[in-house]
Specification:
The complex is a heterodimer of chains A (about 170) and B (about 130). Chain A has a single domain, classed as Heat Shock Protein 90. Helices cover about 35% and strands about 25% of the residues of chain A. Chain A contains four helices and six strands. Chain A has helices spanning about 25-45, 60-80, 120-130, 155-165; strands at about 5-10, 15-25, 85-90, 95-100, 130-140, 140-150. Chain A starts with 5 loop residues before the first strand and ends with a helix. Chain B is an alpha/beta fold and about 130 residues long. Chain B has a single domain (about 15-120), classed as 2-Layer Sandwich (Transcription Regulator spoIIAA). Helix content of chain B is about 35%, strand content about 25%. In chain B, strands 1-2-3-4-5 form a five-stranded mixed β-sheet. In chain B, helix 1 packs parallel to helix 2 (about 70-85). Classes of the chains: A alpha+beta (about 170), B alpha/beta (about 130). Chain B: It comes from Kineosporia babensis.
Chain lengths: ~170, ~130
């Protein structure tokens, strides 16, 4: 189902602006990052892009950024060593989210096939909504990143269109 | 708090509510607001209650404003758990957000959506 795969590698390079940063040390700080990221994208990004004609909720970049920010920061809190930090940057391909933590021995793994298993759904959602998703180790820290396009991934739209959600 | 950015408008990001009720012939779970990791304990209780009851469960998601993977996992695992006991999960919508999320994780076939105009009482009468 997911056209996007989890890759091992550094975040995409490019000219990134409007960088916002958060310290993630509690669930509340994760929720705040999620909320502020959604607001930032809605204000800066979607003012230049009309609502997608599909009408899907997650066609909006702000919704995909908020979901991804929430999932990646929650994963950092639950499964990694502090300090956990998050950032959101603007580029010409969309929005780059990077969540950094101190756990270099525990790296992300692609979700398995069993959707009823504990864990894995968050990364599955992130991969369905992102153009690229990856992780790398850098200077004693782990970086997990996702590139969210201004326009939604075609594979995501196709999945939602097939389901005929109204 | 973000280090270099603050929203100019207050955001309503309070945790949501999870209510589970034993009805005459089914279990009713009502989700309201932001259904995320902050209500995971409440979701676990609701899931355990519903599975133990072993009856058809109706989940009202009409007023869900946000759902993360914890909420999606709750829907998926409850649907699968009920199915394993011969019971069924019915989703009371509409909620385009919830429908899209369970579709994106590949769980669209695990639960059935009630017609939007159908009330829980109507469904009970129709299937009794």
């Amino acid at each position: 189902m997911n056209a996007t795969v989890l890759i091992e590698g550094r975040p995409p390079i490019g000219f990134w602006a409007q960088r916002l940063d958060w310290d993630i040390d509690t669930v509340d700080s994760s929720v705040l990052a999620r909320t502020e990221a959604r607001s930032a994208v809605a204000a800066a990004g979607e003012s230049h892009h009309a609502a997608h004609p599909s009408g899907h909720v997650f066609a909006a970049a702000s919704e995909r950024v908020a979901m991804t920010m929430g999932e990646l920061t929650t994963n950092g809190l639950r499964h990694a060593e502090p300090p956990v930090t998050a950032s959101l940057s603007r580029g010409n391909r969309g929005w780059l989210l990077v969540v950094s933590d101190g756990s270099v021995s525990r790296v992300p793994a692609a979700p398995g096939q069993d959707i009823t298993a504990v864990g894995g759904l968050g990364l599955r959602l992130v991969m369905s909504m992102s153009l690229e998703v990856g992780w790398c180790l850098e200077r004693g820290r782990k970086l997990v990143w996702a590139l969210i396009g201004d326009t939604p991934p075609k594979s995501m739209l196709a999945t939602l269109d097939r389901a005929a959600i109204s | 708090m973000s280090r270099d950015h603050q929203t100019s408008e207050p955001e309503n990001d309070a945790p949501g509510d999870v209510v589970v009720l034993a009805q005459d012939d089914h279990t009713l779970v009502i989700l309201h607001g932001e259904i995320d990791v902050r209500v995971s304990d409440e979701l676990e209780y609701a899931g355990r209650f519903s599975i133990d009851a072993g009856r058809r469960t109706v989940m009202d998601v009409r007023h869900v404003t946000m759902m993360d993977s914890v909420g999606v996992s709750f829907v998926v695992r409850l649907a699968a758990g009920l199915r394993s006991t011969g019971a069924e999960l019915l989703l009371q919508g509409p909620s385009r957000r919830v429908a899209e999320l369970i579709t994106l994780v590949g769980a669209g076939d695990l639960a059935r959506w009630l017609p939007e105009e159908a009330q829980v009482a109507d469904v009970s009468a129709g299937q009794s």
